[in-house]
């Protein structure tokens, strides 16, 4: 079943610009093949649970490999046992 996940990755570094690291994390999500939406404070991702969680791990890893000393990660996950979830269903009426 497809899930919706909102991820906020906050890299901490004394040597590398935080926003450059955030852009690298978003690039990982963008090239994952998963459906995603970049928002001002988080990025929403849609897909199978395992694929989404692997992508979130890879986004953290790229920050750490690129100069972040630490990453703070906030996740919000919406799962269903009976149907695929789509973030479009949640925002469609506002567009």
- Taken as a percent bin, the fraction of beta residues is 25-35%
Q: Can you write the helix and strand succession as a string?
A: EHEEHEH
Radius of gyration: 14 Å
**What structural category do the secondary elements indicate?**
alpha+beta
Care to count the β-strands? Answer: 4
Rounded mean pLDDT score: 98
Count of separate structural domains: 1
The strands making up the biggest β-sheet line up spatially as 2-3-1-4
CATH class group:
Alpha Beta
CATH fold type: Alpha-Beta Plaits
Second CATH tier, the architecture: 2-Layer Sandwich
For the largest beta-sheet, the strand count, sense and barrel status come to: 4 strands, antiparallel
Task: Give an overview of the whole structure.
About 35% of the residues lie in helices and about 30% in strands. By secondary structure, the protein is α+β, with helices and mostly antiparallel strands. The protein has a single domain (about 1-85), classed as Alpha-Beta Plaits (2-Layer Sandwich), CATH 3.30.70. The protein has a 4-stranded antiparallel sheet. α1 (about 20-30) runs antiparallel to α2 (about 50-65). The longest helix is centred in the middle third of the chain and has 17 residues, at about 50-65. The protein is elongated, with a radius of gyration of 14 Å. It starts with a strand and ends with a helix.
């Amino acid at each position: 079943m497809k899930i919706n996940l909102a991820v906020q990755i906050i890299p901490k570094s004394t040597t590398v610009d935080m926003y450059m690291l955030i852009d690298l994390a978003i690039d990982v999500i963008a090239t994952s093949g998963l459906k995603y939406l970049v928002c001002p404070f988080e990025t929403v991702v849609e897909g199978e649970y395992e694929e989404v969680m692997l992508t979130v791990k890879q986004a953290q890893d790229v920050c750490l490999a690129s100069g972040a000393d630490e990453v703070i990660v906030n996740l919000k996950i919406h799962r269903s046992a009976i149907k695929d979830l789509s973030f479009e269903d949640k925002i469609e009426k506002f567009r």
